[in-house]
Protein 1
Amino acid sequence: MTAPRWWSRAVFYQLYPRSFADSDGDGVGDLDGVTAHLDYLRSLGVDALWLNPVMVSPMVDHGYDVADPRDVDPLFGGMAALDRLIAAARAVDIKVTMDLVPNHTSSAHPWFQAALAAGPGSPERARYHFRDGRGPNGDLPPNNWTSVFGGPAWTRVSAADGRPGQWYLHLFDAAQPDLNWDNPEIAADLERTLRFWLDRGVAGFRIDVAHGMAKPADLPDMADRAAESDTAMLTSESNDPRFNNDGVHAIHRDIRTVLDDYPDAATVGEVWVFDNADFAKYLRPDELHLGFNFRLVRADFTAHAVREAIENSLAAAELADSPPTWTLSNHDVEREVSRYGDGAQGLSRARAMALVMLALPGAVFVYNGEELGLPNVDLPDDVLQDPVWERSGHTERGRDGCRVPLPWSGDTAPYGFSAAADTWLPMPAGWGPLTVDAQCTDPESTLSLFRRAIELRRGRTVLGRSVRWLPTAPDLLAFQCEDGLVCLLNAGSTTVDLPAGQVVLASGPLPGGRMPPATAAWLTYD
Ligand code: GLC
């Protein structure tokens, strides 16, 4: 039997570069800020970083609108800063993975600019999805697709004579035109991009919208949908022609062919597909190495919902014969402390769920700030930056609230994040007790809990692929991992007795050896 590959049990730290640490005092985090805090990441014990996009971008969607896929934006310190980070991270045995955005480019990408200039029917326009409009004057969009960010998925451009011209497709913002993956130039260019970064020492990619890219040839209308909520990203219906088209698998196979030339690198796909058989297709041996499974993100804090999410994720992974993956939050969803009710209750639940997640077999993704127990932030209208806010006609506030910069030290904003008082999103009052400085010496802090849990996880030789469910009262959850570790969660409202066994870690106090609500514990048996 071959040894498991590093990614199959790694703890990935998702790092939102704008919000981690600012080294040059412009109020926006950057890559030298990351390098300066590698000791922090090392003491947290993570195996790898996933950097949200750092490529050259006008930053309409904060880097998910890429204007040059083979260069680092000066805002983040340029290519030299990435090289410094990769080298310094390697020295402390942390791998660096990057975000890759193959579904669309920025409208500032030279290809899109050329497409605008070249006009209908040109090879330049064939790199994107340009179509004539419907209706007598072509005034109506070519189909009824909606953008994930709100509004129509089509924008009309001007013809050379200044009159209204063709429409182009964008499943996200109008500044993110979708690429036409039927055009072989697109795959050839992506191969260049993959090799470019892998040759620089990048250990793999998180692939954005990995269930997108391929479009049905005739771009058929989608079924009418009820108004989408701000968690629209989390929905995916099997009959939605915008996503999960069969052609996407050939694209993943091409990507895998390149990755196979770099055997220590891995891909993890953002796959918002909830049918397990469909999801598993992305993880066939010649496609992605890992696929994000978002069931824990969607689970309420009840024993039933959490168990169902875990069972389902394990079943999907088993079907795919691929390591399971776990994530409680990311840069697109409300932070779990707030999802679970905010305040002391939200925090206790989030800490308990962290122990559940870190007990499980497979790869784990920790979103920066999760280890500090940060809540979502209610931001005033005038600072909102997520394109969702504008595109939804100010009905959806968007994702800025989970992207506020990390607090490092001190009692007032910007809490050591930046030398600038004005950070790209304002940091709230009252975060003094949540700073890294305040938490790192407190053994009861959320940061200490994550450090200890990750340390114990690293020491576990066998994580395996499965868990054994143990019988419990209805509001409890208990599973035993392949190495014997038992994780117990009290998702109910009364304090319960602990079973026999040695408690090696608990997410909160266990007064009198009993377990209060919203607490989890790890137990071992000699
Ligand atoms: C993914 C990213 C999200 C981004 C979108 C468009 O869902 O996670 O942040 O806005 O793709 O690229």
Protein 2
Amino acid sequence: MATEETLVLVKPDGVARGLTGQILARIEAKGYEIVDIRKFTPAREVLAAHYAEHEGKPFYEPLIEFMMSGDVVAVRVAGHRVIEGFRSLAGATEPTTAAPGTIRGDLGRDWGLKVQQNLVHGSDSPESAERELALWFS
Ligand code: DAT
Ligand code: MG
């Protein structure tokens, strides 16, 4: 079986706050491999496809606007059980209650906005990873 891969995004808040290096260092320190990396401001079409599952939710439009607000760093990360492992490194969605020791718990906070700015995205299943990697690295 080929080594598992996941899509990690350092979101615009992480890039703007100068946390890209710290986030990538945590991925490497855990032992995962950075296979490919790109930095760019994503177009609405990519984001609409990426976040299709959230369409219609109250935070959907703020989420798309936030993700279009600046550069993101998209990373292809490889390793056995990396999908689950990166979700564990990232921590819970809400940065206020994300466990200390996680990326969101250590580096994130709630800014009182319509969408949570929580620094990173990580694919949540093998199906999502395959779909998202094709979308961000096509
Ligand atoms: P995750 O990124 O932990 O997989 P998700 O896929 O449920 O979370 O949501 C995508 C992003 O949308 C999430 O990283 C932050 C934002 N978000 C999710 N739920 C939210 C809520 N109830 N209020 C505000 N923003 C939310
Ligand atoms: Mg998600």
Protein 3
Amino acid sequence: MTDHYKEGWNLDNSYARLPQAFYSKMDPNPVQSPQMAVFNDSLAESLGLSGEELNGDEGAALLSGNGIPDGALPLAQAYAGHQFGHFTMLGDGRAMLLGEQITPDGKRLDIQLKGSGRTAFSRGGDGRAVLGPMLREYIISEAMHALGIPTTRSLAVVTTGEPVYRETALPGAILTRVADSHLRVGTFQYAAKFTNPEDHKALADYAIKRHYPELEAEENRYVSFLRAVISRQAALIARWQLVGFIHGVMNTDNMTISGETIDYGPCAFMDTFDPATVFSSIDTQGRYAYGNQPYMAVWNLARFAETMVPLLDEDQEQAVGLAEKEISAFSQLFTQHWLNGMRAKLGLAKEEKEDETLIKELLDLMQKHRADYTNTFIGLTFDQLENANLSGDEAFTAWRQKWQERLNREEHSGEDAKELMRNSNPAVIPRNHRVEEALAAAGKGDFQVMEDLLAVLSHPYEHSEKQKEYAALPDPSECVYKTYCGT
Ligand code: AMP
Ligand code: MG
């Protein structure tokens, strides 16, 4: 017997109280023999869930659809989206929202199973997910969280005991995803195109109440809401750029209203600095390359702004003008976040006009010498640059001199500058070859490699001896050039 009280479920279902157009209720699809592969004890604790009760067979059953937690109301969410520029109706084709866990400190967080079987929106798909990609999402989302970047999180991965057929038969698994919400730009695109004006407004009011309650009393709350979403996304994308994260599939259905990173498919962290870096095997045009991410974000946000036009003003021309004004703010907001983040990476606390040039000169030198992005900043922090071509370049020596002079103009001490750098430059990122190594071991039933990796990634700013091994660059033979969605 499950003991729901001991498990700690405290689910509400506010999303299910939205108009019917926004979801399709469903029954869970049981699987053959669910087994817990990884479980996130510290996240469980912050959710008010008991690891003791859930990290085992009971949890495996509940987090695979073989049972349902007390208070859950399983449903698949409706949404649309632009995928690589093309508009399509989508919806949760392989995910099931169980409900919203109200945490001990009063937060409301979606609990969603991903890979949980067919839904009303599955189209031709089987609704299932493969173990490797679900573990990948677990590792990278948890690493992003530890880096301090807003993101959905991963509570568990359960293997299903069933094969999933892709090019070959692969082990199936289900990820439990935890999110501020799963409202996406694509949810608003769906509302604007496929629902009536009242439903559309109900969605906007719901999103404001859930994510921006401080705006409810604003004179034109929809304009403020649009501005707030743009502002959170500008901050988020700047954070991605600062750690070298490449999302890989920045379709509008993969951009949240809450400002969290979502949908870890063919994402990866860049090793060598190059703005043209693309890993995703499906991104053949480089649409979502590292250096393009800010432009793609503003493109997505323009699609969001379009959906908001009918709510912004009764006069359409006026409304379009308002939307355009908000969208045009993105670039400056992004640049400000990015510059401040880069300054911190270089130990600079105050702003000087020439900082942008100083930063760009460094990035150009890194690109020229194919220097590792993360390790160059660590090298500057600890005065141990490993790329001999970079450190041997006279232009770099001159740059260092200029940087030192700039540091000397700071009010804080050299030690304060170093501390700022230590707190702004991660010692470890989930390097692709390490992630692949962990997934390969897990595929053979050994989850220890992944657990060790997760432990190191959970303290990226610790700068411990142990992390050095994980900071090492891949051998040429280990280099990962392509990542796959693995849907
Ligand atoms: P993603 O690329 O993960 O953002 O997914 C894009 C869309 O494809 C979403 O609507 C997913 O629910 C759907 N989808 C992905 N994989 C499957 C699958 N195996 N079965 C059904 N739908 C899927
Ligand atoms: Mg998606």
Protein 4
Amino acid sequence: MTYIFAHRGSSKDCPENTMAAFKKAYQDGADGIELDVQLSKDGIPVIIHDEKLDRTTNKKGNVNTYTVDELMKVDAGSWFSKKFSSEHVPTLEMFLDWIAPLPMLLNIELKNNVIEYNMIEEKILQLLHQYGMKKRTVISSFNHYSLVKLRKLDPYIETAPLYSSGLFEPWEYVRAVCSKSAHPNYRSLHPYIMEGFKQNNIPIRPYTVNSKKWMKYFFEWEIEAIITDYPVIAKKLLQEGPPDQKGRFLQKWW
Ligand code: G3P
Ligand code: MG
């Protein structure tokens, strides 16, 4: 059965990467949560997608020019709807404290491909250890040097390269960056590539799978997980019936 990861929480119903979005994902029946992590000025892992506060909060400027105390006071919800004005930028620790007792999986995306945050890998591993979350967490990043570093620090942590275009034989690349799974852009997953991942026993969790057609395509291939903004739709579709013939949906438009 394919796991459903809520992308930045249930981000179509709540402001992305806030505790409201994460709690909604749990209520929606998502199996896991994907979230994005950067470091504050004082080096604390905080959950926010952009390097800047401008798009999703009432403040401006780089995340790493604000202390964690300041970030926990910014309004990270009103841009989405006034009713979320009490949402702030959560710390990763606050989030882990909430998720640890719940039966959920976790995908932490390190947003260190634009700004190389000092020691972010060590800090994330320490927090996952502290909350007993290592075995149900996969760490992904577009910065693949960071993934190799993570595996050197902890040979048991699961890592997955994020990538957005058509790599040649990506299952070989996944091994080259010391990972065991991959997080490709869903559009790169031609049946030939799907077959290669399958033959090489590399689990995949494509992003961001929002249409029913693509959801069905991936369910038919019985992949490990999809990352979606619509966990309710994905769960319902999964429960509706047995997988159809492989590739039937993709053949219509490829
Ligand atoms: O981790 C999957 C996906 O979130 C990667 O892209 O920009 O949505 O963080 P982005
Ligand atoms: Mg992300």
